[in-house]
Structures are given as C-alpha cells and as structure tokens.
C-alpha cells in the first residue's frame, strides 16, 4: 500500500487556476516551481514558489510532476513549445486540468516522450466554488498511461486528502457527459445574456435562478466556452439538440394557439 510523500510539482501556466491549486499544494508540503508566458515572479515569491522565466530551465528542474494549467485553446501551442528533450526524469508525470478531456489526452500521447506518464484530470471546481475548501467537490481523472504508480498515487492524494469525491472515468465518457451538462449550462447562460435578462421587481424563484446562471456563466471567458465547443466532439450534437428542442417547443405553442383560436363547433 502506497503512503503519501511530498512531490516536486512544476506548474505550466500560473494564472488564477494554477495559483488556486498551488496554494493547497504548498500548504500540504509539496515543493513547487512555475513558468508562464506572463511574469508571475511576484506572486510566486509570496507563495514561496520558484518562478522560471526560461522554460528550458523549468523543464530541467527535475520535477516529479508537470501540471499544465493553460486554457483549452492554448494547450496545443504551450505543449509543443516545451523543450521536452531537456527532461531530467524520463518518467515525469504530466497532468492536465482542462474542462475537455479527449483533446489533451490525444495531444499528450502524440507529443510526449514514450517514457512519460500521463494523467488526465478535471477538477470540477475552481477558485470560487473551492474557496472554502474542496471537501465533497468532484475530481475526475483518467490514468491514460501510468508506469510510476507511486507518483500518480501521491498526486491524486493531493485531492483525496482534501476530501474530494474521486471519480475515475475515461476521457471519452467525461466528454460525452460534459457536453450534456457543462456545455449546455454555458450555452443556456450565454443565450440568456444575449437576451439581456435582468432582475425585475416581480422575479419568481425560477427566474432568479436563471439570472444567477447568466451571471455565473458570464464570469467565464468566451475562450473557455468556445473551447468547450471546439475541443469536445460531442458538444456539436448537443448544440443541435438544444436548437431543435427550442424549435419543437415553439411548434407546440403555435399548434396550441392555432387550436385555441380556431372557431369552436358544438
């Protein structure tokens, strides 16, 4: 049975989500390094994390885990820019945290050295929903290619030890479900935003929920939303389904109106 040990974790992309994860990892006693296109050296200094402007030096830092925290649309470009030939540990564990899963899995399998391990994950929470702790929040993962079970166990323990609900699932199954749940949620929220819905003096509870959905959705970037569409092959059909369903509901209303307004015969 594995026992947890501290890891050397290198984070690629140190924006808000990378920093959010890093704070808990540091608290747990792991050693962190980071690199990013933006200079986050000041933020890293406050967290006691070594920041590398030079990505080659970062790759040479002998990390157990390289955690890629970029956006969906920039993932391919960032991954291909890493000087992977400079890796000191052949069995380095590469982890992604994107909201789509087949896309990063396929890129990691294509680009990484054969010796590298691959863990695809999706923490189903973020800086807002996880600000008071991660207990009972869902952490999805797929062990795509794991030889070093010990390092993989220790990385997953970062989330398990915080009380996350650990859910092992294939990347394909994740994307099928996410297209029906996460993508549809964002699509409805953005549609409501296009309609400029706002609170009124006579809001029902249901309408308040819709306004809240719109506000929550619009806090995420359009880059994230478009990434959920472009990089999840199942999302295209779900958008068609949503459009078809709205058309169907309209047809039902028009049909009922026609029946009600037509002359009645005793």
Automatic annotation (TrEMBL):
Stretches that traverse the bilayer: none
Gene Ontology BP annotations: tyrosine biosynthetic process
Keyword tags: Oxidoreductase
Annotated GO MF terms: arogenate dehydrogenase (NADP+) activity; NAD+ binding; prephenate dehydrogenase (NAD+) activity; prephenate dehydrogenase (NADP+) activity
Domain Prephenate/arogenate dehydrogenase, chain residue ranges per copy: 7-266
PROSITE patterns tied to this protein: PDH_ADH
InterPro entries: 6-PGluconate_DH-like_C_sf, NAD(P)-bd_dom_sf, PDH_N, Prephen_DH, TYRAAT1/2, TYRAAT2_C
Keyword Cell division among UniProt keywords: no
Pfam families: PDH_N (PF02153), TYRAAT1_C (PF26213)
The protein, known as: Prephenate/arogenate dehydrogenase domain-containing protein
Organism: Vicia faba
